[in-house]
Design a protein that fits this description.
The protein is mainly α and about 375 residues long. About 60% of the residues lie in helices and about 5% in strands. α7 (about 155-175) runs parallel beside α9 (about 200-210).
């Protein structure tokens, strides 16, 4: 939890309490501030209000947020966008960062900002209201993010619930045959692995369904849903929207977005370094091609598909012996655990997509062309 003076220790105390109630001793919670204050006790009014509600802040001592702590975290909760910006600067990594207030329910988010104001200098009621808001948001966070933890294992009940809750409305909205297409499964899987809150995806799905022209192919619908998910994720202060959505459909400049992708590829080449020369040179070549602005925007999809294939091929050759076989075995296990979610005949194509994602993640490479990767004819027509 990252915040200043009083909100961070209150949020940390609430989260510890909820985890204790769940018996989740495997989750560690720590609190630090962005002002660099060290060794201070909790603000007296915050400690009193928290104590009245059953949270003990007597042992709290302030800590300054540091880059090592951020990089060692599985995720970071912040109170304000300014905190998120500072955490991103410190992290220099893709650690998930969430505004605590983004987990308020829809009614709460319509009447309150996802940024939780600091009550310092105000009366006791302001502190109570701050704590109530934190409790509401943390309760939703625990329900969505802790009780539905992707680390619970392949085919776990939490994963099954996530896929069913999202997959069933997709099938109903597009009126296709039973089972998700490979592309649809891949997108739902990416939201699961990025730990997007279920409520956010469902609200995006409802919005996309309302605006979707009936009769379009399933591929068009999942593109619409993906763009809406990414838009809402950005508004909620979540990091890691898909490159495909950033690149198109959001009203931005396609050439500018290709330059962003080229920058990501150059950074990846620097991370790879001399240990994998072929992969490094492929990343550099892809960055030069995509950042050249020489092709018409209409050609960008084809370019991205081409370079994804080249990057994946170079990554395959750079893997340690036996790693690819292990990726395939792991993902086959996941697909067995999620049996019934895929449309007939989509398993092999989905497996290819998932293994390619594992390759990119292994070398910390950009998720190039997520919506287009490995797309076959089943995704282009009706299911």
């Amino acid at each position: 939890c990252s915040g200043n003076i009083c909100r961070s220790p209150m949020a940390a105390a609430v989260l510890r309490d909820r985890l204790e109630r769940l018996g989740r001793s495997d989750v560690e919670v720590s609190s630090a501030g962005t002002l660099g204050i060290v060794g201070e006790t909790a603000e007296p009014l915050a400690a009193r209000v928290a104590g009245e509600a059953g949270y003990d802040l007597s042992s709290h001592r302030s800590r300054a947020l540091g880059g090592a702590a951020v990089r060692g975290a599985d995720l970071v909760l912040v109170m304000e966008e300014s905190h998120a910006a500072e955490v991103r600067e410190l992290a220099k990594s893709d650690v998930p960062i969430f505004l605590v207030g983004s987990f308020l329910d829809r009614a709460g988010r319509e009447t309150r900002s996802p940024e939780i104001d600091d009550p310092m200098g105000r009366d006791e009621e302001a502190f109570r209201e701050c704590l109530r808001t934190i409790e509401e948001a943390v309760d939703r966070f625990v329900e969505e993010m802790i009780d539905s933890d992707p680390s619970a294992g392949p085919g776990s009940p939490a994963e099954q619930r996530f896929f069913a809750a999202i997959g069933d409305p997709i099938l109903k909205a597009r009126g296709g045959a039973p089972g998700l297409t490979s592309l649809e499964f891949h997108m739902v899987d990416s939201w699961w692995k990025r730990r997007w809150p279920l409520w956010l995806v469902l609200e995006a799905l409802t919005e996309a369904e309302a605006d979707w022209p009936r009769g379009e192919a399933p591929r068009g619908f999942i593109h619409s849903v993906a763009r809406e998910v990414d838009r809402r994720a950005r508004e909620a202060g979540l990091e890691g929207s898909s490159i495909a959505s950033r690149r198109g459909g959001g009203g931005g400049d396609p050439e500018e977005s290709l330059e962003d992708l080229a920058g990501d590829l150059r950074a990846a080449a620097r991370r790879v370094g001399g240990a994998h020369p072929r992969l490094r040179e492929t990343l550099r070549s892809a960055a030069r091609a995509l950042g050249s602005r020489s092709a018409a925007p209409a050609d960008s999809d084809a370019q991205i598909r081409k370079w994804r294939e080249a990057v994946v091929a170079a990554a395959r050759e750079s893997l340690p012996l036996g790693a690819l076989e292990q990726f395939e075995a792991d993902e086959r296990g996941r697909l067995r655990g999620l049996s019934g979610r895929l449309s007939p005949g989509a398993t092999d194509e989905t497996l290819q997509r998932l293994v390619e994602d594992r390759l990119l993640a292994y070398f910390d490479l950009p998720r190039v062309g997520l919506l287009d990767a490995g797309a076959g004819s089943r995704d282009r027509g009706s299911a």
